Each structure stands twice: as C-alpha cells, then as structure tokens.
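seq as requested:
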Amino acid sequence: MLRKSLLFVSLFVFCTGLVFGQDPLAKKDSNKIEIQHAEYLDIIQYHNTQVNSLVHNVILVQKDLTLYCDSAILDKASNIAKVYGKVHFNKADSVHAYADSAIYDGNLKFAELFERVKLTDKQMVITTDHLSYDMQSHVATYHEGGTVTDGETKLTSRNGYYYTDTDDAFFKDSVFLKHPKYSLEADTLRYNTALDRAYFIGPTTIYNTESTVYCERGYYDSETGIAVFNQNTHLINTPQELYADSLFYNRETGIGEAYGHIVFTDTAQNVIQYSNIATYDEIHNVIVSTGGSVAGYVLDNDTLFIGGDTIRTMQDSLKNRQMLVYHHVKIYKSDLQGTCDSLAYSDLDSTIRLYGLPVMWSDSTQFSADTIHMLIRDKALSEIHLFSKGFIINEDDSLIYNQIKGRKIYGYFVDDELRVIKAIGNGESIYFGKDDDDQYIGVNKMVCSEIYIYLENKKFHRISFINAPKAEFNPMDKIRLKDLQLDNFEWLYEKRPKSREELFPEALPLQAE
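struct tokens:
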C-alpha cells in the first residue's frame, strides 16, 4: 500500500512462525545482522533507508552471536539493532547477557544493555541496570553500580570491567566483597573468577571473624588459602597488632611470614617487638624473628628492650609464653643494661635467664656470672640472681671499685633500685670505708661464707659479714688502687649499651616511646 502523504512504504507480512531463509547461491555478508525468526515483520522505507520492525519470538544472528527478544528494530544500512523485552545475547554459547532492552551495533560488535541486566558465563554472574558489552575485545563494563556473584562470593562496586576471555574483572569505587570466610573493602580490586583470586590495588581492608588486615597491594586465593599483603600492611588480631612491609599467609599450612620494618604489639602481654623477618606457625603457636630483632616489655612506666640476632617465642595450650633470644644479645632499660650470648624468658615464673658470658649493669654496679636470672614481679624487676662465679663490682669513684665474689649472689630491688646484695658461699669482698664527712679512710678486704651489702643512693652504704669473717683493713695512704682487685676482676663498661638505639640494626624501624 502506497501512502505518499507519509513518504514511506509499509509491507506487513503475517505468518505464524515466519522463518527467513537465505538464497543458498547468494553471497552472504557475515558481518551483517541477519533475521533468523520473527512472527511479525514490518519493512519500512524512509528516505532511502530500510528499517525492519520485528515482533514476537525474534531471533537475530551474526556469526557466533545469537540475539533473542520480544521485538526489535533492525536498521540494515547502519547494521544496528534496537531490541526490547526479554533480551538475551548468546555469544558462542558460553557468555549470556540478559536485559529489558538493548542497542547492538553489528559493525562495532558493541552492545548497550538497559534495566535488569544480567551477564553470565561459566564462572560468574554480573547484575546491573546498565551494561556495555564489547564483543570484539570481550569486555563488559558498568559505571552505575553492579553486583558480581561467583559461587559463594558476592561483590559490589560502582564501576566494573569484566574480561570474558581471561576471566579477569576489575572493580573500582566503593568495592565490597563478601565471602563465607572473609569480607573485603577496597577502592580498586582485580578478581579472577577462574582462579577465585582477588588482587588488591590501592587501599584495601580485609575482615574475618578473628582479624582485620589493611594493605595497598597483594592478593588472596580462596581456593588455596594463600594470601599476600604488600605496602603499609597492618594486621589487627586483638589484643595483637602487626605492621610490616609485606605479609604472606598459607591457610592450609597455618604458616605466616612477615618482611620489612616489622612492629608487633600485644597489649595483653605488654609486649612490643621489632624485626626484619618473622615466621609464624599458628598450629604450634611459634613465632621466629630473624635478621636482627628487638623485644620490648613494659615494666611500670619504663620498657625493657631485649635485642638479638634471633627471637623465638612459643605459647602452650594454657597461653603461657616462652621466649628465646640468641646470639649477640643486648638489654636496655633506663636503669638496667646487659649483654650475653643467649637469653630465655618464661611466663610460668616471670624469670629472664641469661647465658654465655652474661653481664648486667644497674647504675654504677656491674653483675657477672656464668648464669644470671632476673625475676620480674608486678611488672617490675624484683631480684637478680648470679650463679657460679658471681662477681659484683660497684664503681664508687674513679678507679675505686667495691667488689663482691661468691658462689651465689642475690640482688634485691625496691622501686627498680638495687637496695640489698647477698653473697653466699666462698664470699670475698673489697669495700672502701668512709667517715662521717664522706671521705675515704681505708679499704676492707674480707673472706666470709655470707656477706650482706646495703645500698643508698645507688652506692654501697653498709656491709655485714656472717660466720667468722677473715678481715684485713688498710688505710688509704698504705694502698695502691690498682692492686685492689679480686681475681678475675674485669670492668666492662665499654660493652655496656648506652641507649636503646644500640639494640636496633639499621634496617629495623625506629622504636616507639
């Protein structure tokens, strides 16, 4: 029927189940969108342009793409189809996209899908209200918010990019991922659906029932349970916190590793630890720190720092902790310093044990023995015990040293200050006496089985000898100071740590106050 007033020709064909076939001898353009099926067809000619209006059970095809819908407008000249109602794109029978409506450019092989959009492949499902799907580059994108579901994993974000041929997806802006074993918030995230692996790009926070991790680079593999966190890493597992350059964790083995500028705190134990490399075995509750490590214990208003090549801490089923520090050990507290080759600490008796030529200093007093024990009570140093070849030297003035030797020597502290020393067994002493004007009057040399020394203002004040002491007194004008040294006398002041910074290798982070 010709309608000149409207300047178009309409051809209406009605046939239930109308199928459009092709002349087998005609040359087929594989880039063109072809009509495979429709129940109604309107062919409209307008300004030398032919438009096909298709209705009911419409099927359009282009190479390996099949497009289903309720109705469509196909512009053959531009090779563009506008489709409506129950839209379904089937790409190579592997990727499927659904929507209420869409525009498909057959030349660019590019689709815009609108309202209740769903894209699926063998791995995942994307839902959104507006999706762009480039079938040449195999990339689907959304910029108005979307949700990705992959098995038990659900992810939402403002922007999303999914590469269907590599199973890679990129998400940006308000990214939130929910997995049965963890949750994640990020600014930017890459997720591989085939591997079930999330890659962190930019500030990212991961939560589970026990802990929280922050990082700015890394990945987590849900299948293998392997996690790698890099750049400004921060782990919170209350009451414990860990800072490091990077973290590695294997869920299957329970092994965690930390690298670079490690700072670990435990507020329940009043412990802080620094190291360069650390390994944690969660099955056996063992932490080994190497490459130079420092542990700090808060005692009252001060901190006792212990540094060494390696620190190994263990915890039993009752939460009792043991710590071993070995090789080149140094100890620093504002009023107590020490060195030894190895050290052990146990929560069971709150005792620090020093081995391998241990030497301790408290103010002007030096302690040395084969083994030294330091007893901690109520977060304060309570006693110091010297076993075998115990030797205490108190520097009273320049070149003037009060000295005590004994098989066992015990020092007792009050308010972190050494107040009483007791030497038992084969006791020997050299003690400089003073008059009421605090002037030296002479030196006492004593041999006795039991000796008590009382200190005031960090100096020897009074000495008592028990059980038949053998004494010798010489006035000051009759002695030479260099001769007044007991056997094995050795003043080791040059080995005394002068500050806590001496305990820290250059690569370790600067300790906190």
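Residues 1-27 have pLDDT under 50 and may be disordered.
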